[in-house]
Write a structure and sequence with these properties.
Helices cover 51% and strands 18% of the residues. The protein has 808 residues and is α+β, with helices and mostly antiparallel strands.
Length: 808
C-alpha cells in the first residue's frame, strides 16, 4: 500500500453539476486522515490533503457513483505534455460525441416543432392520429436511446446511491414528458380530450439543447487551459550535449545534472542551467512577463523554456525534469487553479440542497396546477413540472467560481505573477494597505559603495580618495575632526578589506556591494582567515579575522601595528549592532561619525559601521537606487485608495529620505523581523487588510503574517516559500498586475454568481407558471432547456473574457 503525504489530486468522471461537488467533498472528508477535499468542478478534479491511501479515496468515490483516477502532480514537464495531449484528445472525443447526439436529436425535433407551429397541433383525436404518432414515438425512442441514454444511466446510478444530480433533473423532465405522451397514445381515455397532447418534440428538443449546451461548455472550457498548454509547449524535445570534442543531440529525458550543453541562436533552452561560456540576450517573457530580452553572461542562470536570441551559449545543467523553474511554475498554477475561494462556499452550500429542493418545487407546482388548472390541469401540470426540472439545472452555479479562477490564475502566470491559492486571489482584491520592504523591493537591490570614511592613524597613514565622494580637502578636514583623541586605528583600504572579508560569508545585497567594490580595487580580501562567522538578522555580521603578514604588505600604511589592527573580532552593521557590542557611543568620535552617517542617510544612503571590541573604526555607505517604476506604482495604488507603507531594517535617515523622495508618509525604519510582524498586526487590529511585498529572509515572517504575502521571485527561497504570491519578474509593475488580475477576477466571479442566482431565482418561478394567471404566459419546456444550456455557456464565456487582460 502506497501512502502519499500532503496531498493527492484526483480526476473525477461522472460529476454532472454543482450538487455533485458537495457530495464528493463530503464523502472524502468523512474518511480518516483526510484533512480537506476541494473539488474544481470546471476541471473535474479534486485536491485531497492529508496522509491518504489513494485507493481508499478512489473506492470512496466509486461508492457514491463516481469514477476517479490519480493525477501525478510531480510528473516532469514531458510527462505533463503527454498527459495534456491525452486530455485534449479525450475532450475532443467528448465534444464530438455531444455534437453528434445533439444533431441527431435536432434532426427529429425540428421537423416535429415545425409541424406543431405551422401545420397542425400535437393532439390525438382519432385512431389514425394514434397510429401516426405511434410511429413518431418509436422514432423518438430510438433517438432518445442514442442522444439521451447517458443522462438516464447517470441518473439511475445516482438513484442507486440515493443521490441526485443534473442528470436526475434532465431525466425526470424529459422522461415525464415522454411517458406522458406514451400514456396519451396507449390509454387516451385516462385524459380529458383537451389534455390529449403529445410532447415528443419537447423531450427531443430539450435533449438536443442540453447536449448542445454541454458541447459549447466543453469547447469554451477547453480555452481556459490555453495558458497552461502554452507553458507546457515551451519544453523542447531534445538538447545538444557537449562531450569532450564531440557535440550531439539527445532526447531531453537523457540530459543529466552537470551535463554541458550548447544553446545556439534562436533555440529554446531545454533545462535550467548556468552559463559557462558566451553571452546572449534571452527572452524570458513567457516565464517572467518581462518584454525585453535579458543579457546573460558567464555565471548567469538561464531557465528552461526561455528563448536564446542572438548569441551562442555553453551552459551546464543545474535542474532537470520536474525540478526546473518551468515545471515548478506549472505545478504552482495547477495547484492554485484547484483551490477554492471563500466566496464559493455559499454556492457550494446552496448546491448541496439544490436538486432535492428543485424536485420538490416541481412536484408542488404540478400538484397545484392539477388542482387549480380546471380543463387544462393535466397539460399545465406537465408543462410546469418539466420546465422547473429543466431550467433549474445548477451547472452555471457550479461553474461560476472555478472557471474564473482557472482563467485568472493562468492569465496572472502569463504576466509573471504566480498565485499559490484561491484565497490569495480573493484577498488581494480586497486589500486596504500595501507594505513595501525597501532593499531589493522598492530599490534595485544592486547597491554600490558610495562613501568610505575611515578613522586614520594620527601619524598620517596614506589615504585614497577614489573610494569616496568626499573631496581631498574636505576628507582631510573630516579625518582631523574624527581623530582629535589621536587614536591609532585604521586606513581606508584596510577598512574596506576587512569589511569585504567579513561580508564574504553573507548573502545580503549590501554585503555583495562591499565585496564587489573591494574586488574592483584589487584589494586582497582572500589573505584573511575568517572564523566564527555570525549573521545577526536585522543588525549585521561579526567574525574573527586573522591577517597573514603577506596580506598586509600591499598596504601603504604597513607598519609595526598594521598586522595587529587587521586581526581580531570585527563587527559590521548598523548603530543597533554597535550598542550590542558595547562600544562607547557617547564619545566625541562616535557622535561625530553618527552625525556624518546621518548626513549620508538623508541622501538615501545606507551607512554601515565597522568596529572591533574596543574602537569604532569607520563607516562605509552604500547607495541603492530606487526603481524607475516605483513612483508610477505608488501613484496607481494611491489612486485606488490603497495605503502605502514602507517597513525596512535600514536606518531611519535612509528610509526617511526614500519615503520623502516617493512622497510617502507612513514608514517604519530599523525594523527587525519581529518589528515588521508587529507593524502588520497593528494595522490588522485596526481592520486594515494588509499586503506585504518583500524579498529577503528577514521579510519571511512578515510575508507569512500579512493577509497576503507577495515575494519578488528573484529574492530568497525562504521569502518565496512564505509568500502567497510570487512575482517572477523584478519589476514593481507586477504588483499592480497581481492586484488588477485579482480584482477583475473577483468581479468576474461575482458576475457569474449573481447571474446564476438571478437566473434560477427568476427562472424557476416563471417555469412554475407564476405569470400564467395574470398574462396567460407559460414557459415552454423547450425554451427552458435552451435557457439552461445558455446559462452555463454564458458563465464560461464570461470567464474567458479574462484571457484578454493586458498587463502593465
Amino acid at each position: 500500500m502506497t501512502l502519499q503525504a500532503n496531498s493527492i489530486e484526483l480526476k473525477v468522471t461522472g460529476a454532472g453539476c454543482a450538487s455533485c461537488v458537495a457530495k464528493i467533498e463530503q464523502a472524502l472528508v468523512a474518511l480518516e486522515q483526510v484533512e480537506s477535499a476541494q473539488m474544481n468542478f470546471a476541471d473535474r478534479s479534486v485536491l485531497v490533503k492529508g496522509e491518504c491511501d489513494e485507493n481508499v479515496l478512489i473506492r470512496a468515490l466509486e461508492a457514491i457513483g463516481y469514477q476517479a483516477s490519480v493525477i501525478e502532480r510531480l510528473a516532469s514537464v514531458e510527462q505533463q505534455q503527454r498527459r495534456q495531449q491525452q486530455h485534449e484528445q479525450a475532450e475532443q472525443r467528448h465534444y464530438h460525441s455531444l455534437l453528434k447526439r445533439c444533431v441527431l436529436a435536432f434532426s427529429l425535433a425540428i421537423p416535429l416543432m415545425f409541424y406543431s407551429l405551422f401545420v397542425g397541433d400535437m393532439s390525438i383525436t382519432s385512431n389514425v392520429q394514434r397510429v401516426l404518432w405511434s410511429l413518431v414515438a418509436v422514432l423518438s425512442l430510438m433517438v432518445m436511446w442514442v442522444s439521451a441514454r447517458h443522462f438516464y444511466l447517470a441518473a439511475w446510478q445516482a438513484l442507486l446511491k440515493r443521490s441526485a444530480s443534473m442528470d436526475s433533473l434532465i431525466s425526470l423532465g424529459t422522461g415525464a414528458a415522454f411517458l406522458y405522451s406514451l400514456l396519451v397514445l396507449v390509454v387516451p381515455s385516462l385524459f380529458p380530450v383537451e389534455a390529449r397532447y403529445v410532447y415528443f418534440e419537447a423531450s427531443l428538443m430539450i435533449v438536443a439543447l442540453v447536449n448542445l449546451g454541454l458541447a459549447l461548455e466543453a469547447k469554451a472550457r477547453g480555452r481556459t487551459s490555453q495558458a497552461i498548454k502554452r507553458l507546457l509547449d515551451l519544453q523542447v524535445k531534445s538538447a545538444r550535449i557537449i562531450k569532450g570534442e564531440q557535440e550531439f543531440d539527445v532526447a531531453l529525458e537523457q540530459v543529466q545534472l552537470g551535463d554541458v550543453l550548447r544553446i545556439r541562436p534562436g533555440e529554446q533552452i531545454p533545462v535550467d542551467a548556468q552559463v559557462l561560456e558566451g553571452q546572449s540576450r534571452v527572452d524570458e517573457a513567457m516565464l517572467s512577463g518581462e518584454p525585453s530580452p535579458v543579457l546573460k553572461l558567464k555565471g548567469d542562470h538561464v531557465s528552461a523554456g526561455t528563448f536564446n536570441k542572438n548569441g551562442s551559449l555553453i551552459v551546464q545543467a543545474s535542474a532537470i525534469g520536474q525540478d526546473t523553474a518551468l515545471a515548478q511554475i506549472i505545478r504552482m498554477v495547477r495547484q492554485a487553479q484547484n483551490t477554492k475561494l471563500p466566496i464559493a462556499r455559499l454556492a457550494d452550500s446552496i448546491s448541496a440542497y439544490f436538486v432535492p429542493v428543485v424536485v420538490s418545487i416541481a412536484l408542488i407546482s404540478g400538484c397545484l396546477w392539477l388542482y387549480f388548472g380546471a380543463e387544462q390541469a393535466y397539460s399545465l401540470a406537465l408543462v410546469t413540472t418539466v420546465s422547473v426540472l429543466i431550467i433549474a439545472c445548477p451547472c452555471a452555479l457550479g461553474l461560476a467560481t472555478p472557471i474564473s479562477v482557472m482563467v485568472g490564475v493562468a492569465k496572472a502566470a502569463e504576466f509573471g505573477v504566480l498565485i499559490r491559492n484561491g484565497q490569495a486571489l480573493q484577498k488581494t482584491a480586497d486589500i486596504d494597505a500595501v507594505i513595501f520592504d525597501k532593499t531589493g523591493t522598492l530599490t534595485l537591490g544592486k547597491p554600490c559603495v558610495s562613501d568610505i570614511i575611515s578613522l586614520l592613524d594620527h601619524r598620517g597613514d596614506e589615504q585614497s580618495a577614489k573610494n569616496t565622494e568626499l573631496g581631498t580637502e574636505e576628507k582631510s578636514e573630516t579625518e582631523n575632526r574624527l581623530n582629535d583623541k589621536g587614536h591609532s586605528i585604521i586606513s581606508e583600504n584596510e577598512l574596506l578589506s576587512i569589511a569585504a572579508a567579513l561580508e564574504l560569508g553573507s548573502e545580503h545585497r549590501l554585503a555583495e556591494a562591499i565585496v564587489e567594490h573591494a574586488q574592483a580595487l584589487n584589494l586582497d580580501i582572500n589573505g584573511f582567515t575568517v572564523t566564527d562567522f555570525q549573521a545577526h538578522t536585522g543588525l549585521g555580521v561579526e567574525a574573527c579575522i586573522n591577517a597573514s603578514d603577506e596580506s598586509s604588505l600591499h598596504l601603504a600604511s604597513a607598519g609595526s601595528n598594521a598586522l595587529t589592527r587587521r586581526s581580531g573580532r570585527f563587527y559590521l552593521g548598523n548603530w543597533a549592532l554597535l550598542e550590542q557590542v558595547g562600544i562607547d557611543l557617547n564619545s566625541d568620535t562616535a557622535l561625530r561619525v553618527k552625525a556624518l552617517a546621518s548626513g549620508l542617510a538623508e541622501q538615501a544612503k545606507t551607512p554601515m559601521y565597522l568596529t572591533n571590541k574596543q574602537h569604532l573604526l569607520g563607516l562605509i555607505a552604500v547607495a541603492d537606487p530606487v526603481k524607475e517604476e516605483a513612483d508610477l506604482v505608488i501613484s496607481n495604488l494611491k489612486e485606488q485608495g490603497v495605503q502605502v507603507h514602507v517597513v525596512s531594517g535600514d536606518n531611519r535617515h535612509t528610509v526617511k529620505a526614500l519615503v520623502s523622495k516617493l512622497k510617502l508618509e507612513k514608514y517604519c525604519a530599523e525594523a527587525l523581523p519581529a518589528d515588521k510582524v508587529t507593524y502588520i498586526k497593528k494595522l490588522q487590529r485596526q481592520g486594515v487588510k494588509v499586503l506585504m511585498v518583500g524579498d529577503g529572509i528577514n521579510d519571511a515572517p512578515a510575508l507569512a503574517e500579512a493577509d497576503v504575502g507577495m515575494a519578488i521571485g528573484k529574492g530568497t527561497d525562504i521569502a518565496i516559500e512564505s509568500a502567497d504570491i510570487v512575482l517572477m519578474r523584478d519589476s514593481l509593475l507586477a504588483v499592480i498586475d497581481a492586484i488588477t488580475v485579482s480584482k477583475v477576477c473577483l468581479k468576474n466571479i461575482k458576475q457569474n454568481l449573481w447571474g446564476a442566482f438571478i437566473y434560477n431565482s427568476l427562472g424557476i418561478p416563471i417555469a412554475a407558471g407564476i405569470l400564467y394567471p395574470f398574462w396567460g404566459m407559460l414557459l415552454n419546456p423547450m425554451f427552458a432547456g435552451a435557457a439552461m444550456a445558455l446559462s452555463s455557456v454564458t458563465v464560461v464565456s464570461n470567464a474567458n473574457r479574462l484571457r484578454f487582460l493586458k498587463h502593465h
